Amino acid sequence: MLHQQRSSQPIRISTKICRIFLITGATLTASSFLVLIVLHGQLEVLDERPFFIDRPSQSRETNAREHAEEWPPTLNVYTEPTSSNDVWYIDPTAQAPKPKRPLPHRTISSHDLTKHTFPKINYTSIETTSNLLCNRIPSLLPIDDFGSTFQDPYLPWIHDVFVSSNDPSQVHILGQNRRRCHTGKNHLQEMKYWEGQLSLFQPIALKRLVNTSNYNADDTVKYRLSSHQDADEDALETRFRCRFKVIDYEQQTVTYQGESLSTYPFNYEFVNWRKKRKSMLEDGKEQSSFWLSPLMFRCPIPKPLLVYMTESRLLLDVVPIRTPSRRNDRDGFFFHDGMGGPVTFNATKAYGDNYVLPEAKDSGRWENLPVCALKPPTDSSKEHLLSSVEANAPLNALNEKPHKLVACTWTSSLHQRRGNERRISDGKSRLREWIAFHLEAGFDHMYIFDNSGANSNIFRLKNEVDPDFGNATVPVDLVKDDLSSVTGLFPASKVTRIEWPATICNNNRPAHDDPGERSSQYAAEAACRMRYGPYTDWMSSMDPDEYFIPMGNYTSWKQILDKVDRDEGRKVLKFRSTRARPLLSTLEPTYDENVKECTKEMGKTHNKCLAKKEENTYLETYNCEYIKSPKPERFARAM
Question: Whole-angstrom Cα distance, residue 409 to residue 622?
């Protein structure tokens, strides 16, 4: 019996309308659908809840009214009681409850909130914030606590927060749709509970009251829900209040300085309509609308506060604006006239003309998120471009970006295959070969989102011998339980490792009654596009068992992409690919007494289990293309 890692990755698409170019090619992959995207511009592109599993928490939970702002400030999350939304509905117990019209006000105050404190993110000094915290935000956020330690369906499930060095005027926030974690007929109550997650993808329009400035340093602004016709210009499509505070490390104070309203990189509801989906809110498995998995939005930084961002003195509170999720087939679509689609949701009828939002202090929210600027990628061969980036020169004003082609991958030292069928423990050796090959094949940079931290407790990595680096060639103190021992073999100008320990929320197979949602992977792929897309012309997303091999007269991917840019003007290259089988001559018998099919006793009477010979590379081994090119049409899809 042969044991081989098999990757299964859903399609990722550009948020623009793209033409697709199908190319046949040999890849070392598991029937996966590979997509290469060009990035020529910015990406615009129930009370008891018995179904939740409680886990040990790293947070401190208190009643929200017990504490004022403390020093040093820490990351806090305020959750609202689910029952506070019942007033919205005619029958809150219905599986698809219908909102009352006009929408009644909720009676909620700060006394009803629960405060959860996460001490791993705290701000004691500029040095600590700049050097330790800002470089590790995805590994410090309470991602795995969301849905277990604290639960609030109207809070975004945040996986990443950053400011791009290319555009320091706004904070980018990346979340995931928690409702997709467990779906199907056995999880209807859980899906109903998390229905508020879909509302975060649906824009609403606002009108300011009392203080009508879009920069409110005195905290007197009030908002009401409105139609597009009545909305303020910066509030046509928003969903979150972005409240900024400044830290004074010397005086040990935190003061509110102003707020803005969030923006989306594109209109999710309009995309759903363009894809001819009846509703964003599906009942059932809800896995087909994969564009509703990552949630991306931005918080504009008020101009007077930009100076504090460069000094690591800014903090951000994210306050979601809570309304019932729109079931588009029942409630209609709500995008403004400029989008080109039908506006069938009547905001005035749904909300009335006097639905004033509660104050921020009376609302569930994320408090004290760090505002940190990412460093641009390094490339010694294009220092003139990177110096322009560091000087905040707009990249679209430059004739050339620092990189032509980069790759993103989400991987781990070891992991479980889908369905937790089998443990895969050769992640380091695979990654080392994969990086080396693609750098030779014309890739400028490799971004490695290291998910090893999610598996460290499961597999006890620190107690296991490192098969690749636990030897005399590498000092013992450099042996790691993550992928840094691999990425450290390559120059920083070629490989960047991002610590990404978030656990996938569901590892079932796609055909399961509760199909898998690889939330951590999908978030990593979106984060790579958001973080590093502005610095490259082309970007690919693939797994370390997938190889992009230049074929025919080409020896480098840059040659291929130069031709595409010059002659074809395409924005997306999509590949049909099939799993490669290993060559028998590169294999040898292997035994594992913990796997009944691979014991030495079983090998005496049955086919022996086989493994790659140490002297052969993975590309040499899995190099039997048993399905010849051109690949059949059925392989042009996610598997």
Answer: 20
